[in-house]
C-alpha cells in the first residue's frame, strides 16, 4: 500500500534518514519508534509530501507521490501538534475540512461523538484545552474514511478514557483493512496496537519486523521490555563504533 524506496533526508549536515526502504501493507498497524530526534516525524512528513527527500521515492497505492497531490485524500493524518485558526469554532473547522473534500459524502463521526465534540461545536479553538485539541485532531483524521491513517503521537495529552476510545477505534479500523502507522513514546499503548515494530536509530532502520519476531530476537515476552532491549543494543552498537573509530 505504501513503499518507501531508498529515501534519504538531510537537514544541513545532519543525516536524518539514510536510504530507508520500508513496505506498509493494508490491514496492518506499524509502530514507528526511536529516540527523540531520530526522524519519525520527518519520515511521516515525507510520506505526506510535506517534506521533500534528498533522494528516493514513495509509492502510495501504486503511484509515486512526486508531483502528485491526489494521493493525500486517501490518508487521514493526525499531527503531533494540531495547528488551527484560533478564532474558528470547532463546528466551523469541521465544516471547512468537509468543504475541502466535496467528493466525500459520508463522514465517520464516531470519534467526534464519542469524544463529545458535537456538544461543543460553538467553542473557539483558542479556548480549548490541549487534550480537547488532540480530540479534534483525532476526529478529523478519521472523519473521511481514508484507507491509510498516519497518527503522530496520537494519545499525547489525552485522558485515560479518551485513550481507550482512540485505541479501540484504531483497532477497529485496522481490522476493517486500513493501514495504520503510529509513532509514540508510550510503549505500553503500542503493545496492543502493533503488528510490526520499526525502530529508527541515528539515521538507520535498526529493527523492522513483526512483534513476534521482536520478542523472539530479544528473548523478551513483554513488548515494552523488548523495545528497551533494542534501545540498549542500539546504544551499545554506537559505543562500539565510537571505540573502534578511536583505534
Ligand atoms: N525543518 C527542519 N530543519 C532542520 N532540522 C530539522 C527540521 N525538521 C526536523 N529537523 C531535525 O531532524 C531530526 C529529526 O527530527 P524529527 O522531528 O523527525 O524527530 P522525531 O523522531 O519525530 O522526534 P520526537 O520523538 O522528538 O518527536 C532532529 O534532529 C530535528 O532537529
Automatic annotation (TrEMBL):
Q: Name one GO molecular function term.
A: ATP binding
Q: Give all residue intervals belonging to the ABC transporter domain.
A: 2-227
Q: Which InterPro entries match?
A: AAA+_ATPase, ABC_transporter-like_ATP-bd, ABC_Transporter_VariousFunc, P-loop_NTPase
Q: Does the keyword Isomerase apply?
A: no
Q: Name one Pfam family in it.
A: ABC_tran
Q: Which UniProt keyword terms apply here?
A: ATP-binding, Nucleotide-binding, Transport
- What is the recorded name of this protein? ABC transporter ATP-binding protein
Amino acid at each position: 500500500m505504501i513503499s518507501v524506496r531508498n529515501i534519504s533526508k538531510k537537514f544541513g549536515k545532519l543525516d536524518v534518514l539514510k536510504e530507508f526502504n520500508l513496505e506498509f501493507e493494508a490491514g496492518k498497524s506499524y509502530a514507528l519508534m526511536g529516540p527523540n530526534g531520530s526522524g519519525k516525524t520527518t519520515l511521516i512528513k515525507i510520506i505526506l509530501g510535506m517534506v521533500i527527500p534528498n533522494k528516493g521515492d514513495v509509492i502510495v497505492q501504486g503511484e509515486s507521490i512526486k508531483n502528485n497531490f491526489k494521493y493525500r485524500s486517501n490518508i487521514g493524518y493526525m499531527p503531533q501538534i494540531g495547528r488551527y485558526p484560533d478564532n474558528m469554532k470547532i463546528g466551523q473547522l469541521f465544516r471547512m475540512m468537509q468543504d475541502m473534500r466535496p467528493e466525500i459524502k459520508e463522514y465517520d463521526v464516531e470519534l467526534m461523538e464519542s469524544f463529545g465534540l458535537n456538544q461543543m461545536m460553538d467553542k473557539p479553538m483558542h479556548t480549548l484545552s490541549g487534550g480537547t485539541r488532540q480530540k479534534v485532531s483525532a476526529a478529523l483524521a478519521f472523519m473521511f474514511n481514508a484507507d491509510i491513517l498516519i497518527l503522530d503521537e496520537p494519545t499525547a495529552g489525552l485522558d485515560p478514557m479518551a485513550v481507550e476510545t482512540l485505541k479501540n477505534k484504531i483497532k477497529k479500523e485496522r481490522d476493517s483493512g486500513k493501514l495504520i502507522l503510529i509513532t509514540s513514546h508510550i510503549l505500553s499503548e503500542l503493545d496492543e496496537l502493533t503488528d510490526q515494530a520499526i525502530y529508527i536509530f541515528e539515521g538507520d532502520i535498526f529493527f523492522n519486523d513483526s512483534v513476534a519476531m521482536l520478542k523472539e530476537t530479544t528473548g523478551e515476552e513483554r513488548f515494552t521490555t523488548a523495545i528497551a532491549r533494542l534501545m540498549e543494543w542500539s546504544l551499545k552498537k554506537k559505543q562500539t563504533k565510537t571505540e573502534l573509530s578511536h583505534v
